[in-house]
Design brief:
The protein has 12 helices and 17 strands. It is α/β, with parallel strands linked by helices and 365 residues long. The chain has 2 domains: 193 residues, Alpha-Beta Complex (Quinone Oxidoreductase, Chain A, domain 1), CATH 3.90.180.10; 138 residues, 3-Layer(aba) Sandwich (Rossmann fold). The strands form 3 sheets. Strands 2, 4, 5, 8, 9, 16 and 17 form a 7-stranded mixed sheet that branches. Helix 12 links the parallel strand 16 and strand 17. Helix 5 packs across helix 6 and helix 5 crosses helix 11. The protein is globular and about 60 Å long. The structure holds nicotinamide-adenine-dinucleotide (NAD) and zinc ion (2 copies). One zinc ion binds next to helix 3 and helix 4. One zinc ion binds next to loops.
C-alpha cells in the first residue's frame, strides 16, 4: 500500500463486512474489545513495511474468548486475552532457547499472512481470502487466532489498558528488562516518545535507571515523557541531541534506545552512547535503509548494538508481569492512551498518527 494523504480521503482501510470461518484445531474465536493503532500499522499503510494484501490489519489488542476449536487447552470461553504479535510455537529451536520473539514458525506464518496452522479464516465480499496481520487482525469485531498468539489476563483490567500490553508495553519495557538488561543507577536515553519509546522510559524508571533522557521533536511528547519518568527532555529540533546527552552523562549514556524507526536517528542514538555502552534499536525503518557508522568504533570503543523485536519478550512470562507492575503503580501505562475512536474513524486515526499528534489511539467495539 502507498496511499495519498490524507488517509481520511484516500481510505487505505475499508470498513466492510467480511466472513470469518470457525476456529480450526488449536484456534480460538475472539471478540475484540480494544485495539491500539501502532506505528507499525501505519508502516503497512504507507508502504515502508510491506505486507501481503488484502489484509485485516491491527496487532495490539485485547478481547474475550467466544469459541474454541479442537485441542485448545490454553484458554477457555469467557477468558480475557491479550494478543502476542508473534505466535509462540514453543517447539522450534528459538522457542526452546527462550527466544520467543524469534519463533521460527511464528515468523514464517506472519510473513505469509497466515495463522500458525497455515490457515486463513477471513474472506471479503469479493470472495478474496484476506490475510491475517501478525496472527492478530485486531481491527475487526471478531477474529480467529492460534492459541499460541494469546495470553490470558486478569479480568479486572480494563480492555483499553490491556490492549497496550500487546505491543507498545511489551516492546518498550521488554527492551529495558530483556534486551539491554538495564541496571539500576545506569544512564538511559530514549529517542522517539511514541507508545514504544514512552514505554521504554517507564521501564527505565521501574529499573531504577538515572538519568533518564527523553528525546523527541515535539514538546507535548516530551512533557508526557517527564510525566512517566524522564528526568531530562531534549527537543532534537532545537538542540544537538547527541551533544546534550554527552553533556548530561559526562560522555554519553550507557544505554541508548531508538524508537523512531529512522536510520538517521539510529546514528544519533549510536553517537549518544558512551564508550563501552549499548545502543538498542526498536524502530523498524524500511527494508532498503542502511546503517552507516564507523566500523572501527565497535572494537576500539567496545560498543554493542542490539536489535530488540517485541522487547525480546516471552509473552506469557512478561505480559502478566508488566500488568502486575502496572496495577502496583510501577508502570503508568494508561498515560499512553491519548484517543479513543470507533472503527469507522480508523483512517482519521492514521492521519493523526502520521502527524505525530497521538500516542496510542484505541479503537473500541
Ligand atoms: N521492535 C518492535 O518489536 C516494534 C514494535 C512496535 C513498534 N515498532 C516500531 O517502533 C517505532 C516506534 O513506534 P511507535 O508506535 O512508538 O511510533 P510513534 O509514531 O507513536 O512515535 C514516534 C515518535 O518519534 C518522534 N520523532 C519523529 N522524528 C524524530 C526525530 N528525528 N528525533 C526524535 N524523535 C522523533 C515522533 O514525534 C513520535 O513521538 C516504529 O518504527 C514502529 O514500527 C517496533
Ligand atoms: Zn506494534
Ligand atoms: Zn517457535
Amino acid at each position: 500500500m502507498n496511499q495519498s494523504l490524507p488517509y481520511a480521503t484516500s481510505l487505505p482501510l475499508v470498513v466492510d463486512e467480511v466472513s470469518l470461518a470457525a476456529p480450526g484445531a488449536g484456534e480460538v474465536l475472539i471478540e475484540i474489545k480494544a485495539a491500539g493503532i501502532c506505528h507499525s500499522d501505519l508502516s503497512v499503510v504507507n508502504g515502508s513495511r510491506p505486507r501481503v494484501m488484502p489484509m485485516v490489519l491491527g496487532h495490539e489488542a485485547s478481547g474475550i474468548v467466544r469459541e474454541v476449536g479442537q485441542n485448545v487447552a490454553e484458554v477457555a470461553v469467557d477468558d480475557h486475552v491479550v494478543f502476542s504479535f508473534v505466535p509462540v510455537c514453543g517447539l522450534c529451536k528459538f522457542c526452546i532457547a527462550g527466544r520467543a520473539a524469534l519463533c521460527e514458525r511464528g515468523a514464517r506464518a506472519n510473513v505469509a499472512g497466515e495463522l500458525l496452522s497455515g490457515a486463513k479464516r477471513f474472506t471479503n465480499n469479493l470472495g478474496q481470502v484476506c490475510n491475517h496481520h501478525l496472527g492478530v487482525s485486531a481491527f475487526s469485531q471478531f477474529t480467529v487466532a492460534a492459541q499460541e498468539s494469546l495470553v490470558k489476563i486478569d479480568k479486572s483490567l480494563l480492555f483499553e489498558s490491556a490492549a497496550l500490553f500487546g505491543c507498545a508495553v511489551m516492546t518498550g519495557v521488554g527492551a529495558i528488562f530483556n534486551t539491554a538488561r538495564v541496571a539500576a543507577g545506569t544512564s538511559v536515553a530514549v529517542f522517539g516518545m511514541g507508545g514504544v519509546g514512552l514505554s521504554a522510559v517507564m521501564g527505565a524508571r521501574a529499573a531504577g535507571a538515572f538519568p533518564i533522557i527523553a528525546v523527541d521533536v515535539l514538546e507535548d511528547k516530551l512533557d508526557l515523557a517527564k510525566e512517566v519518568g524522564a528526568t531530562h527532555a531534549i527537543n532534537a529540533k532545537e538542540t544537538d541531541a547527541a551533544a546534550a546527552i554527552k553533556d548530561i552523562t559526562d560522555g554519553g549514556a550507557e544505554n541508548v534506545f531508538e524508537s523512531v524507526g529512522s536510520e538517521t536517528v539510529l546514528v544519533q542514538a549510536y553517537n549518544s552512547t558512551r564508550r563501552g555502552g549499548t545502543t538498542v534499536t526498536l524502530g523498524l525503518p524500511a527494508p532498503d535503509k542502511m546503517l552507516m557508522i564507523p566500523a572501527v568504533s565497535l572494537v576500539a570503543e567496545e560498543r554493542k548494538i542490539l536489535g530488540s523485536y517485541m522487547g525480546s519478550a516471552i509473552p506469557r512470562r512478561d505480559i502478566p508481569k508488566y500488568i502486575a507492575m502496572f496495577q502496583a503503580g510501577l508502570l503508568p501505562v494508561d498515560k499512553l492512551h491519548t484517543h479513543t475512536l470507533k472503527l469507522d474513524d480508523i483512517n482519521v486515526g492514521f492521519d493523526r498518527l502520521n502527524r505525530a499528534e497521538a500516542v496510542r489511539q484505541i479503537v473500541t467495539f
